[in-house]
C-alpha cells in the first residue's frame, strides 16, 4: 500500500499544481512539498523495512485482466529499491533546479510529476504489462518536457527521442506479450525462471526484449538519440533524463530479462558484456573531443552505463550487485554534472569548453563540485561510482576476461577526458576579466547540487547502506540462474 | 406469394438502381422511398409487420423527408450530363460492386442453412418488447443495446444541432 | 414457400447496388441515400434470418431495430455535416472535398 | 589487542581524514589557523604511529578489519589494518615527514589564496597514504592508491591559475592512471583466479597452485606497472619532473618521501607473491636498474634545481626497485626509509631558496652559501647522504643494494648501479656548487636570506636524520635488517643467506661517489666555468639528447597523445556523421518512400471506400480459401488497384 501511495502521490501533485495560479513563489514551494512526499515515504520504507522489502505492507496485487493473467502488481525489491529512491530523490532535485524554466512553470511541474509516476512505477512494477505501461508513461511527459521547454533544437530532438525509444519499447512489448501469452501469466513472480518455457523459446523471446531495452539505455550504436535530447533539454529535465531514464532500460535487463529468461539471456551474455565494453570505450573517445561541455557529459554518461551492462552480463553476485548499484551512482553523478554545467552555461553564456577557463577562481563551490562530479564519474575511490564500477569490473572480468580488460582500460580514457575538461573549464587563468565577479552558487543552486554530491560521498564510503538492501534480491536472481 | 415476391424484388432493386442512376437528386430521393417501401413489403412477407410499420414510419416517412430537406438546402443547378453526376472511378466502382454482389449472392446461396421454416421471428409488438428488453427466452444482450441505441440517438440529435448551427462568422461568408 | 436464399439474394443485390452508388456518385446526399439502401439490405437479410432460422431466437429482428435507430442517427448527423460543408464550401460534391489531402 | 588500542591505531589515518573534511568545509572560517589544526593532527598521528611501532616491536604484527562490502558467498571486501614491521616503519616515516612538511608549509604557503584548502588536501594525502600503507588487501590498497593520486593531482595543480601547473597536474594524473589501470587488471586477474584480494591469501593460493606460470607473471607485471606509474619508473616516469610545478613542500612530501615510494612499497608489500615468479622479479630489477641510470643521466644537464632533485628521485626509486627485484628486500626498503629523509630535506632546501628568491634556475643563484648558511649546510648533508658517502644515512642502504647486486651475480645491474652512484654524486654537487658557491649572479640571489625558524627547524631535524637514520642498519648493529625482513617463505624461495659486510665493495662505492663530487668540483667550482663550457660544446648532441629527456616525452606526444586525439576526433565525427547520419538517412528513406506512396492517398473519400470494398473482397476470397477464387480475386484486386491508381483524382 505504501508503495502504491508513493507512486501515485505525484499524480495528485500534478493536479494540485495545475490548479494553482501560475506564480513561481506559489508554485515552487508546493511542488517541493509534493516532490518531498514520495522521497519521505521511500526513506521511511528504508528505515522501517530496509531488511524486509518483502513485507506485505509494501506490495499490492490486483487482477486486472484475468484471462491473460495481467494484474496491477507492485512491490519493492532490492533490484528496484535503489532506483525507486533515486527517482524520488532526483525529481525533488529537478524541482529545485527548474530555475531555467522561464514560462509555464506550473505545466512544467505537472508534467514532471506525471513522469515521476511512470518512473516510480517502473521500478516497483511486478507485472510485465504494468511495467510496460509505466515504461511508456514516462515517455510522453519526457517528450513534452524536452519539446516544450528545451532550447532552439528541441522539436527535432524531442521527436527523434520519441520515435527512437518508442520503436524500442514496441519491440520490447512484442517480446513481453509473447512471453506472457506463452506462459499464461504476466506476473513477474510466476514467470521467474522462464515460466516453464524451453531454452529455444527463451532465447527467441529474449532477443526483442534485450534489443528494446538496449535502445533505452542506450547501447552503442543505438545511442544517436541521446546527444540531441540531452543537449536540448532544460537542466532540470536533464537531471531526470540522464539520472533515471536510462535505468528504465537497465532495470529491465536486471529485473526482467535475466531472472525471467535465464536460459534465454545466457547465450547473449558475451555480447552484452562486449557491448558494455564498447559503450565504455566508445563513450570515452566520443566525449574526448567534444567541444560542448554538455555533450561531453552526455557521452560520458554513455560510457559509464557500459559498466551496468558488463556487470549484468557477469551472472555472478559481484557483477550483478555492481550493476544494480551502478544504476544509482550513475544517476547521482550525472545529475550533479548536468546541473553544474547548466549553472556554468548560465553564468558564462557559453557551453564551449574552449571558451572557458579559471572558473574555480570566481566560483569555488561550482568548480569544486564540478571537479567532484567529474572525479566521481571517472571512478575515483571515496565516491560511490568507484564501488559500483569496481564491483562490475570484478564480476565482469570473472565471467568475460577480454571484455573486462577492455572495460578496465576505460578507466584511463575517462580520466583523460574529464581531466582535460576540468583543466579547460575550472582551472587555468580566468578567460575573461569580467568573469572575476561571477556569482558562486546561490542557496537554491546549492540545494540542488550539494545533496547529490553528499550522497556520492556517503555511498562511496559506506556502500553497504545500499548493497545490503539489494543483496538478497541479487541472491534470489542468482538462485534462478543457477537453478534455471 | 411468388408473384408478390417478384413484384417486391423488382420494385426494390429497380428503385435502388434508380437511386444510383437518376440524374436529378430529387428523383433519387423518391426512388429511395420506393425502394424502402419494397423492403417494407418484404418485412410483411417475413411475418414482421411491426418492423414493416417502423420501416414505413422511419424510412419512408422521416428519413426521406429529411433527405428532401437536405436537398432543398444544398441544391444548386445540376449538370445535365449523366457522366457528370458520377465519379471518375465509376468503372472500377462498378466492377467492385458487381464483385461484391456476386460474391455475396454466391456465398449466401450456396450456404447450407439447415432446417428452415418461416414464422420463427417475433410477430407481435409484445414479442418485440420482450425481445428488446431481454425478457422471456430472448437473448438478454438487447437490453443493453437498446439503451445504447437510445443514447446514440440522443447524442446524434445534439450533434446534428451543433454541427449544422450557423455561426456568426459564417453568416458573413 | 419462398426459399430463404431468394430473400438473401435480393438483399445481396440491393447491397451491391448501394455500394455502387456510394462509390460512384458525386453528390454527398445521394451517397447518403445509397448508404441507407445498404443498411436496408442488411435489415432485409437479418429479418429473413430471424424469420426462417429457428436457432436465431428472433435476434435478427432485434438487430434490425437497432440498425434502424443507428441509421436514423447517422442520417441526422450526416445530413447536418453535409449542410455544414455546403455552407462552408458551397458544394456537396464529394470529390471536391479533399482538404485532408494536404 | 584491546579495543582501545584498535581505536588508537584507527585514529592514525582517520584523524587526518577528519582534518580534511573540517578544513575543506570550514576553510574560510578557519583561515590562517588551518596550519595549527594540521600540525596538531599530524603530531598526534605521529605519536600514535610511534606507539604502533612500539606495539609491533613488542607484540608482533597488528591485524584487524571490518567488513566493507559483504556479499556472502559472492565475495566480500573488508577495510582493515595490517601493521607488520614493514608497515610500522612506513607509517612512522609517513607521519613524521608529513609533520615536518606541515610545519614547514605554515610559513612557506603564507598568504596563499587557498591556504586552508592546501592544508586540507595535505591532510587528505596523509590519511590516504596511511590507509594505503596499512592495507591488508588489494581493494583497500587500490582505493587509497587512487586517493593519493588524487591528492597529488590537486596539490600539483594547487596554483591552477598557472597553465603549467594545471597541465602538469593533468599529466601526472593521467600517466599514473595508466599504471593504475594496469594494477586494476592485475587485481582482476588475482580475483578471478583466487577469489580473494587479500595479500596473504593470494600468496597462499599461489603457493597452492591456484595461479601460477604465465598468468601469475602477467598479473604481477600488471601490478608492477601500477607501481611503475606511481613510482615514476621507466616508461611512465614522465610525469614526475613536470610535477615540480606544485608547491615545493608538496614535492618534498609526495614526490620524494611518500607517494612515489608507494610503488616500491607495493612491491615490498606483495613480495611473497612476487618471489613466486622469477620472471616478474627480473623485470622489476631491470626496469629499476635502467630507470636509475636513465634518470641520473637526465639530471646531469638540468638547470632547474627542483627538476634535478626530481630526476634524482626517479633514479633513487629505480635503485629501490632494483633492490627488490634482485632479492635484496631489506636493502631496498632500508633505502626507501633513508631516502625519505634526505630527499625531503633536499626539496625543503630547494623550497628555502625559492622562498628567498623566485627562480628555480641554479644559474640564477650563486653565492648563497654565505647568505643562507643553514640551507647550505643542510643541503650539503643531504647531498652527501644522497651520494652515499660514509657514514651518512644514504651510504648504508645504497651500499647494501650495490653489494647485493654484486653478490647475487647481477653484474650488469651492478655496473649500472655503480655508474649511477657516480652520476648521482656528480649532478647533486653540480647543483650545490653552482647554486651556493661563487658570487651571486642576480639581484635576487644577492638579497636572499635564510627562511624563518618554522621552516629551518624541520630542515635541521631532517638533516640530523639524514646523517643518522642509517645507523640503525650498520653491520655492527643491524637493527633494521633484523626487524624488517622478508617473510620466511620469501626468504626460502630466494635462498637468502647471510653475507659478510664487504669492506672492499663499500670502499669502491664511496670512492666512486667521491669521484663524482670531485668531477663536479672540477667542472663547476667558482672560476672553472670554462671547463663546463668546453664540455658542453664537445658533447652538444649528447647534451641535447639528455636535455630533451631522451626524447621520450616527444615520442609520447607524437604517438599516444596525438593518437588518442585523432581517435577521439574520428569517433566524434563517426558519431556525428556516420551513426547519426545513418539514423537521419533512415528517416529520409522513410519519408522518400512515403512521398512516392503519397499519390495513393488521393484524398477522395470514395476512392478510399473503393479500396475498402476491394480489400473486403480480397479478404473474403482468402477466407473462402478456394484456390481458384483466391487467384481470381487477387487478379481482380491487382487490376482494380491499378485502375484506381490510374484514376487519381
UniProtKB/TrEMBL annotation, chain A:
Domain NADH:quinone oxidoreductase/Mrp antiporter transmembrane: 125-410
GO molecular function: NADH dehydrogenase (ubiquinone) activity; NADH dehydrogenase activity; ubiquinone binding
Record-annotated membrane-spanning stretches: 6-22, 29-49, 81-101, 108-125, 131-149, 161-183, 203-226, 238-262, 268-289, 296-315, 327-346, 358-386, 406-427, 448-469
UniProt protein name: NADH-quinone oxidoreductase subunit M
E.C. number: 1.6.5.-
Domain of life: Bacteria
Pfam family membership, one: Proton_antipo_M
From TrEMBL, chain B:
Assigned EC number: 7.1.1.-
Localisation: Cell membrane
Source organism superkingdom: Bacteria
Keyword Cell cycle (UniProt): no
MF terms (GO), sorted A to Z: NADH dehydrogenase (ubiquinone) activity; quinone binding
Protein name: NADH-quinone oxidoreductase subunit J
Keyword Repeat: no
Membrane topology field: Multi-pass membrane protein
Pfam hit, one: Oxidored_q3
Keywords for the protein's UniProt record, in alphabetical order: Cell membrane, Membrane, NAD, Quinone, Transmembrane, Transmembrane helix
UniProt similarity note: Belongs to the complex I subunit 6 family.
Single GO cellular component term: plasma membrane
From TrEMBL, chain C:
Keyword rRNA processing: no
GO biological process entries: ATP synthesis coupled electron transport
Pfam families xrefs: Oxidored_q2
Top class in the EC scheme: translocase
GO molecular function, one term: quinone binding
Matches recorded under InterPro entries: NADH_UbQ_OxRdtase_chain4L/K, NUOK/Mnh_C1-like
Protein topology in the membrane: Multi-pass membrane protein
Membrane spanning stretches: 6-23, 30-50, 62-86
Keyword Zinc-finger included in the entry's annotation: no
EC number: 7.1.1.-
Keywords: Cell membrane, Membrane, NAD, Oxidoreductase, Quinone, Translocase, Transmembrane, Transmembrane helix, Transport
Subcellular location: Cell membrane; Membrane
Function description: NDH-1 shuttles electrons from NADH, via FMN and iron-sulfur (Fe-S) centers, to quinones in the respiratory chain. The immediate electron acceptor for the enzyme in this species is believed to be a menaquinone. Couples the redox reaction to proton translocation (for every two electrons transferred, four hydrogen ions are translocated across the cytoplasmic membrane), and thus conserves the redox energy in a proton gradient.
Subunit structure: NDH-1 is composed of 14 different subunits. Subunits NuoA, H, J, K, L, M, N constitute the membrane sector of the complex.
Protein name, entry field: NADH-quinone oxidoreductase subunit K
From TrEMBL, chain D:
One cellular component (GO) term of this entry: membrane
Cleaved signal peptide residues: none
Localization annotation: Endomembrane system; Membrane
Keyword annotations: Membrane, Transmembrane, Transmembrane helix
Annotated transmembrane regions: 6-26, 38-57, 77-103, 115-135, 141-160, 172-193, 205-229, 250-268, 280-301, 308-334, 340-363, 375-397, 409-438, 459-480, 500-524, 605-623, 629-647
Domain NADH:quinone oxidoreductase/Mrp antiporter transmembrane: 135-424
Domain called NADH-Ubiquinone oxidoreductase (complex I) chain 5 N-terminal: residue spans: 68-119
Biological process, per Gene Ontology: ATP synthesis coupled electron transport; electron transport coupled proton transport
GO molecular function: NADH dehydrogenase (ubiquinone) activity; NADH dehydrogenase activity
Protein name: NADH-quinone oxidoreductase subunit L
Species assigned in the record: Rubrobacter taiwanensis
Organism ancestry: Bacteria, Bacillati, Actinomycetota, Rubrobacteria, Rubrobacterales
Amino acid at each position: 500500500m505504501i508503495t502504491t501511495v508513493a507512486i501515485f502521490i505525484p499524480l495528485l501533485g500534478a493536479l494540485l499544481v495545475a490548479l494553482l495560479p501560475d506564480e513561481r513563489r506559489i508554485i515552487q514551494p508546493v511542488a517541493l512539498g509534493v516532490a518531498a512526499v514520495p522521497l519521505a515515504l521511500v526513506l521511511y520504507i528504508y528505515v522501517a523495512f530496509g531488511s524486509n522489502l518483502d513485507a506485505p505492507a509494501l506490495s499490492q496485487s490486483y487482477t486486472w485482466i484475468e484471462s491473460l493473467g495481467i494484474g496491477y502488481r507492485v512491490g519493492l525489491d532490492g533490484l528496484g529499491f535503489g532506483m525507486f529512491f533515486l527517482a524520488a530523490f532526483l525529481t525533488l532535485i529537478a524541482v529545485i533546479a527548474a530555475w531555467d524554466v522561464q514560462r509555464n512553470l506550473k505545466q512544467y511541474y505537472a508534467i514532471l510529476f506525471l513522469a515521476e509516476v511512470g518512473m516510480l512505477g517502473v521500478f516497483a512494477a511486478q507485472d510485465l504489462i504494468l511495467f510496460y505501461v509505466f515504461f511508456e508513461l514516462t515517455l510522453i511527459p519526457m517528450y513534452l518536457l524536452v519539446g516544450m521547454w528545451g532550447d532552439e533544437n528541441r522539436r527535432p530532438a524531442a521527436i527523434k527521442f520519441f520515435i527512437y525509444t518508442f520503436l524500442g519499447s514496441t519491440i520490447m512489448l512484442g517480446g513481453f506479450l509473447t512471453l506472457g501469452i506463452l506462459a499464461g501469466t504476466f506476473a513477474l513472480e510466476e514467470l521467474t525462471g522462464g515460466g516453464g518455457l524451453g531454452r529455444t523459446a527463451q532465447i527467441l523471446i529474449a532477443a526483442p526484449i534485450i534489443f528494446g531495452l538496449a535502445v533505452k539505455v542506450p547501447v552503442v550504436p543505438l545511442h544517436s538519440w541521446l546527444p540531441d535530447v540531452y543537449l536540448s533539454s532544460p537542466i532540470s529535465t536533464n537531471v531526470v533524463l540522464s539520472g533515471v531514464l536510462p535505468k528504465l532500460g537497465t532495470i529491465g535487463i536486471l529485473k526482467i530479462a535475466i531472472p525471467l529468461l535465464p536460459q534465454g539471456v545466457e547465450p547473449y551474455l558475451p555480447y552484452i558484456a562486449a557491448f558494455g565494453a564498447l559503450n565504455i570505450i566508445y563513450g570515452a573517445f566520443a566525449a574526448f573531443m567534444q567541444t560542448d561541455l554538455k555533450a561531453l557529459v552526455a557521452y560520458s554518461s554513455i560510457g559509464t552505463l557500459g559498466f551496468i551492462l558488463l556487470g549484468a552480463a557477469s551472472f555472478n553476485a559481484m557483477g550483478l550487485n555492481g550493476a544494480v548499484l551502478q544504476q544509482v551512482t550513475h544517476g547521482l553523478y550525472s545529475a550533479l554534472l548536468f546541473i553544474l554545467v547548466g549553472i556554468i552555461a548560465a553564468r558564462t553564456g557559453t557551453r564551449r569548453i574552449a571558451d572557458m577557463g579559471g572558473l574555480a577562481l570566481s566560483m569555488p563551490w561550482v568548480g569544486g563540485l564540478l571537479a567532484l562530479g567529474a572525479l566521481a564519474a571517472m571512478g575515483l575511490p571515496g565516491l560511490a561510482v568507484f564501488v559500483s564500477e569496481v564491483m562490475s569490473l570484478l564480476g565482469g572480468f570473472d565471467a568475460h576476461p577480454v571484455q573486462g580488460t577492455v572495460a578496465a582500460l576505460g578507466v584511463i580514457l575517462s580520466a583523460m577526458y574529464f581531466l582535460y575538461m576540468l583543466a579547460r573549464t575550472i582551472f587555468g587563468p580566468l578567460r575573461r576579466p569580467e568573469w572575476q565577479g561571477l556569482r558562486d552558487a546561490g542557496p537554491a543552486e546549492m540545494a540542488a547540487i550539494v545533496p547529490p554530491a553528499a550522497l556520492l560521498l556517503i555511498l562511496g564510503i559506506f556502500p553497504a547502506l545500499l548493497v545490503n538492501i539489494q543483496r538478497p534480491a541479487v541472491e534470489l536472481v542468482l538462485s534462478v540462474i543457477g537453478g534455471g | 406469394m411468388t408473384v408478390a415476391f417478384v413484384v417486391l424484388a423488382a420494385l426494390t432493386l429497380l428503385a435502388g438502381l434508380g437511386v444510383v442512376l437518376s440524374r436529378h437528386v430529387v428523383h433519387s430521393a423518391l426512388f429511395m422511398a420506393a425502394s424502402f417501401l419494397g423492403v417494407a413489403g418484404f418485412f410483411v412477407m417475413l411475418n414482421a409487420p411491426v418492423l414493416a410499420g417502423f420501416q414505413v414510419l422511419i424510412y419512408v416517412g422521416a428519413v426521406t423527408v429529411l433527405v428532401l430537406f437536405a436537398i432543398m438546402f444544398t441544391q444548386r443547378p445540376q449538370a445535365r450530363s449523366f457522366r457528370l453526376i458520377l465519379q471518375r472511378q465509376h468503372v472500377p466502382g462498378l466492377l467492385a460492386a458487381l464483385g461484391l454482389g456476386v460474391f455475396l449472392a454466391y456465398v449466401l446461396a450456396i450456404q447450407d442453412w439447415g432446417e428452415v421454416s418461416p414464422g420463427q421471428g417475433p410477430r407481435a409488438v409484445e414479442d418485440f418488447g420482450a425481445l428488446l428488453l431481454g425478457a422471456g427466452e430472448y437473448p438478454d444482450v438487447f437490453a443493453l443495446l437498446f439503451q445504447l441505441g437510445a443514447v446514440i440517438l440522443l447524442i446524434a440529435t445534439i450533434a446534428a444541432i451543433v454541427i449544422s448551427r450557423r455561426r456568426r462568422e459564417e453568416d458573413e461568408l | 414457400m419462398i426459399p430463404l436464399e431468394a430473400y438473401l439474394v435480393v438483399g445481396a443485390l440491393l447491397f451491391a447496388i448501394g455500394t455502387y452508388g456510394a462509390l460512384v456518385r458525386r453528390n454527398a446526399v445521394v451517397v447518403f441515400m445509397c448508404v441507407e439502401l445498404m443498411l436496408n439490405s442488411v435489415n432485409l437479410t437479418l429479418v429473413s434470418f430471424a424469420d426462417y432460422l429457428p436457432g436465431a431466437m428472433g435476434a435478427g429482428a432485434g438487430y434490425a431495430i437497432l440498425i434502424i435507430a443507428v441509421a436514423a442517427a447517422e442520417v441526422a448527423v450526416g445530413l447536418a455535416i453535409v449542410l455544414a460543408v455546403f455552407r462552408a464550401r458551397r458544394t456537396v460534391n464529394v470529390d471536391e472535398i479533399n482538404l485532408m489531402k494536404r | 589487542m584491546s579495543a582501545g588500542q584498535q581505536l588508537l591505531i584507527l585514529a592514525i589515518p582517520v584523524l587526518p581524514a577528519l582534518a580534511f573534511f573540517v578544513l575543506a568545509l570550514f576553510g574560510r572560517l578557519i583561515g590562517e589557523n588551518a596550519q595549527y589544526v594540521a600540525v596538531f593532527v599530524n603530531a598526534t598521528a605521529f605519536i600514535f604511529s610511534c606507539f604502533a611501532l612500539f606495539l609491533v616491536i613488542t607484540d608482533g604484527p597488528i591485524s584487524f578489519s571490518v567488513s566493507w562490502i559483504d556479499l556472502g558467498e559472492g565475495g566480500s571486501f573488508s577495510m582493515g589494518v595490517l601493521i607488520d614491521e614493514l608497515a610500522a616503519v612506513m607509517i612512522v616515516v609517513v607521519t613524521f615527514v608529513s609533520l615536518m612538511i606541515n610545519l614547514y608549509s605554515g610559513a612557506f604557503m603564507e598568504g596563499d589564496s587557498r591556504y586552508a584548502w592546501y592544508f586540507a588536501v595535505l591532510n587528505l594525502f596523509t590519511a590516504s597514504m596511511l590507509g594505503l600503507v596499512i592495507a591488508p588487501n588489494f581493494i583497500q590498497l587500490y582505493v587509497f592508491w587512487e586517493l593519493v593520486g588524487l591528492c597529488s593531482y590537486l596539490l600539483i595543480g594547487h596554483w591552477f591559475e598557472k597553465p603549467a601547473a594545471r597541465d602538469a597536474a593533468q599529466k601526472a594524473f593521467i600517466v599514473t592512471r595508466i599504471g593504475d589501470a594496469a594494477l586494476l587488471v592485475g587485481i582482476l586477474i588475482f580475483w578471478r583466479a583466487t577469489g580473494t584480494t587479500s595479500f596473504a591469501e593470494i600468496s597462499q593460493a599461489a603457493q597452492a597452485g591456484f595461479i601460477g606460470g604465465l598468468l601469475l607473471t602477467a598479473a604481477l607485471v600488471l601490478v608492477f606497472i601500477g607501481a611503475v606509474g606511481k613510482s615514476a619508473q621507466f616508461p611512465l616516469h614522465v610525469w614526475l619532473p613536470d610535477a615540480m610545478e606544485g608547491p615545493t613542500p608538496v614535492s618534498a612530501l609526495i614526490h620524494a618521501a611518500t607517494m612515489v615510494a608507494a610503488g616500491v612499497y607495493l612491491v615490498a608489500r606483495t613480495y611473497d607473491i612476487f618471489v613466486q615468479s622469477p620472471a616478474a622479479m627480473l623485470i622489476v630489477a631491470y626496469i629499476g636498474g635502467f630507470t636509475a641510470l636513465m634518470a641520473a643521466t637526465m639530471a646531469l644537464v638540468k638547470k632547474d634545481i627542483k627538476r634535478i632533485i626530481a630526476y634524482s628521485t626517479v633514479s633513487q626509486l629505480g635503485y629501490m626497485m632494483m633492490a627488490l627485484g634482485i632479492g635484496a628486500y631489506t636493502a631496498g626498503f632500508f633505502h626507501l626509509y633513508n631516502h625519505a629523509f634526505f630527499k625531503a630535506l633536499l626539496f625543503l632546501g630547494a623550497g628555502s631558496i625559492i622562498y628567498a628568491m623566485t627562480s628555480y634556475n641554479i644559474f640564477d643563484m650563486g653565492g648563497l652559501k654565505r647568505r643562507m648558511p643553514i640551507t647550505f649546510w643542510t643541503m650539503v648533508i643531504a647531498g652527501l647522504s644522497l651520494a652515499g658517502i660514509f657514514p651518512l644515512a644514504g651510504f648504508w642502504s645504497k651500499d647494501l643494494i650495490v653489494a647485493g647486486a654484486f653478490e647475487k651475480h647481477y653484474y650488469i645491474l651492478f655496473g649500472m648501479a655503480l655508474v649511477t652512484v657516480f652520476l648521482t654524486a656528480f649532478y647533486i654537487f653540480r647543483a650545490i656548487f653552482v647554486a651556493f658557491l661563487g658570487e651571486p649572479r642576480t639581484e635576487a640571489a644577492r638579497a636572499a636570506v635564510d627562511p624563518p625558524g618554522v621552516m629551518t627547524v624541520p630542515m635541521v631535524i631532517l638533516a640530523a636524520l639524514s646523517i643518522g637514520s642509517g645507523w640503525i642498519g650498520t653491520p655492527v648493529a643491524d637493527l633494521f635488517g633484523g626487524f624488517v625482513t622478508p617473510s620466511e617463505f620469501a626468504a626460502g624461495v630466494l635462498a637468502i643467506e647471510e653475507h659478510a659486510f664487504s669492506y672492499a665493495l663499500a670502499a669502491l662505492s664511496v670512492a666512486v661517489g667521491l669521484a663524482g663530487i670531485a668531477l663536479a668540483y672540477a667542472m663547476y667550482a667558482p672560476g672553472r666555468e670554462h671547463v663546463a663550457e668546453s664540455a658542453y660544446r664537445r658533447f652538444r648532441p649528447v647534451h641535447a639528447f639528455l636535455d630533451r629527456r631522451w626524447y621520450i616525452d616527444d615520442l609520447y606526444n607524437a604517438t599516444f597523445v596525438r593518437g588518442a586525439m585523432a581517435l577521439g576526433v574520428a569517433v566524434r565525427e563517426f558519431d556525428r556523421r556516420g551513426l547519426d547520419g545513418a539514423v537521419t538517412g533512415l528517416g529520409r528513406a522513410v519519408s522518400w518512400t512515403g512521398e512516392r506512396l503519397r499519390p495513393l492517398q488521393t484524398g477522395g473519400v470514395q476512392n478510399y471506400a473503393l479500396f475498402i470494398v476491394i480489400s473486403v473482397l480480397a479478404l473474403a476470397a482468402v477466407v473462402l480459401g478456394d484456390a481458384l477464387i483466391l487467384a481470381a480475386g487477387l487478379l481482380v484486386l491487382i487490376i482494380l488497384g491499378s485502375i484506381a491508381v490510374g484514376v487519381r483524382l
